[in-house]
Structure formats: C-alpha cells, structure tokens
Design goal:
4 domains; three-stranded antiparallel sheet; 62% helix; disordered C terminus; Tetrahydropterin Synthase, Chain A; 20% strand; alpha+beta; Band_7/stomatin-like_CS
Length: 310
C-alpha cells in the first residue's frame, strides 16, 4: 500500500513538471532531446518531462545600462560617457540560438561604438550633439543586433563628464562669453537709445520749424489782408470825399478856407516841417494875394480915417 502511494506521488510530481504556463508577454521554445521542436504560445502548455525542455523569452521592451567608460575625443580630451539602451526581442528563436548572452553582447557593442562615434567628434560637439550621438549609436546597434532577432528602439546618453580642469576652463569661457554678450547688449541698448533720442530731437526740431513757418505764414497773410482792407477803406473814403466835393460844387474861397483850417491843425502838432502838395502852391499864392488885398484895404481905410480927423 505504501509502495503504491509513493509511486502515485512520483507520477504526480513528474506529470506536474510537464505543465508550463506562458504569460502574454512571453514566448516559449520547446526542445526535445536537445533539438528545437516547436514554439509555445501564451497559455497552458504541456511538455514531456525529462525529454522536452522549454525556454521562455520575454518579448517586452527592456533596458540595459551601459557602464561608464572613458572615451578620447578628436581633440584628445578624455571624457566619461554613460549610456542606456532600450531594446525589444522580435524573434525568440534567433535571440536564443544566435547569441549566447545578448545583454553582455549589447553592452560590449555599445561601448565599442561609443568610442568610435565620440572619437570622431571634438569636445564641444560631443557636449552639444547628444541627439546626434544617440541616433548614430542606435542605427549602428540596430543593424548589428538585427541578426540576433533584437530591435534597438532607443539609445540615450546619460552623461558626458570631461575632466575637472576642462570643466573649470569651460566655466571661465562661458562666464567670459556671458560678460561679452552683456557688454554688447548694453552697447546696443545705449546705441539704440541715442538713435531714438536723436530721431526725437530731429522730429521735434522739424515740427517746431514747421510750426514757426506756419505761424509766420498766417501772420503775413493776416497783415496782407489788413493792408488790403485798409487800402480799400482809404480808397473808398477818398472816392467818397472826392465824390462829395464834386457833388457839393464848392467855391474856391471855401476850398481856401478848408486849406487854412488844415494848415492850422498841422501847425498845432509837434512836427516842425510841413509838406504841401505841389497842386496847392497856386492855391496858396492866391491866398497870399487875397491876404495882401485885405491888408492893403485895411491900410487904405486907416489912412482915410486919419485924414478926416485932421
């Protein structure tokens, strides 16, 4: 009875060892007596114990951390480079049977190609062209690992560390560049400020000159209209006076009396010289003659009075 129980337990253990469960992101390779037999899909699978063996392959995207290594650039600067590789297995058969240890092979391949890629670049290019390094390295690794049934999806450079003395020199250089840009920007700002100020002064002078010109023009036009109006008024007054004189038909005696009144008003002024029109000379001569006549008449009357008294 005990024998049969032991036999049943052994059979159960052997049968249980032949039951395999494959997860959705895995793929199984079944070998029979050391020879590839078939692929095993996700789910519950059975193999013959001690005769068949199953190798499970993870098909998910996986990350490999490439250890830091020292690389010499084109300008003979030693830098420490650290990278990360993202890959995904596309063919489980080739990754198992074409390479013994894919991760180690990928790390060594990445390190070798890092030396080649960075060795063709100078330090400044290395620090500023990470994307270029990533793309170049990914293309090289993807081409090399294609025969292993692996797809390299991404390569990222984690850090590139130059020596400390190079870092100090670069820091001083960047500081000098920033100071230079600050001085240039300050000079450009001062230049722009002076240009703007000069343009403002220019526009102000132009506007002021235009204002003065417009003011002089308006004053001249006003004086012009004033003189025209005064001339027209004097002309109208002269015409009206002349017309009134002719319509009134004055005698020469009346005209002479008016001249005398005018001369009297002129004589009452502060001027010490009197200018008379040429046409008035004949009138004044006649007035002088009339004055002589009145004077002679007055003297004659006074002589006759003296004779009568005698």
């Amino acid at each position: 009875m005990v024998f049969w129980l032991i036999l049943a337990a052994v059979i159960f253990i052997i049968a249980a060892s032949g039951i395999k469960i494959i997860r959705p992101f895995e793929k199984g390779l079944v070998e029979r007596l050391g020879k590839y037999r078939r692929d095993a899909q996700p789910g519950l699978q059975f193999i013959i114990p001690f005769i068949e063996r199953m190798v499970k392959v993870d098909l998910r995207e996986t990350v490999i951390d490439v250890p830091p290594q020292e690389v010499i650039t084109k300008d003979n600067v030693v830098v420490t480079v650290d990278a990360i590789i993202y890959y995904q297995i596309t063919d489980a058969f080739r990754v198992v049977y074409n390479v013994s240890n894919f991760e180690i092979a990928a790390i060594k391949l990445a390190q070798t190609n890092l030396r080649n890629v960075i060795g063709e670049m100078e330090l400044d290019q290395t620090l500023t062209s990470r994307e270029r390094i990533n793309v170049t390295l990914r293309e090289v690794l993807d081409e090399a690992t294609d025969k292993w049934g692996v797809k390299v999806t991404r390569v990222e450079i984690k850090k590139i560390d130059p020596p400390q003395d190079i870092m100090d020199a670069m820091s001083k250089q960047m500081k000098a560049e920033r100071t230079k840009r600050a001085v240039i920007l300050e000079a450009e700002g001062y230049k722009q400020s002076e240009i703007t100020k000069a343009e403002g002064d220019k526009m102000s002078a132009i506007l002021q000159a235009e204002g003065q010109s417009e003011s002089i023009k308006r004053v001249a036009e006003a004086n012009k209209f004033k003189l025209i109006a005064e001339a027209e008024g004097q002309a109208n007054a002269t015409i009206n006076v002349f017309k009134a004189i002719h319509e009134g038909d004055p005698t020469k005696d009346l005209i002479a009396i008016r001249y005398l009144d005018a001369l009297k008003q002129i004589a009452d002024g502060k001027a010490n010289k009197v200018f008379l029109p040429y046409e008035s000379s004949a009138m004044l001569s006649s007035l002088g003659s009339m004055a002589e006549i009145f004077k002679d008449g007055k003297e004659s009357s006074s002589v006759s009075e003296k004779d009568s008294k005698k």
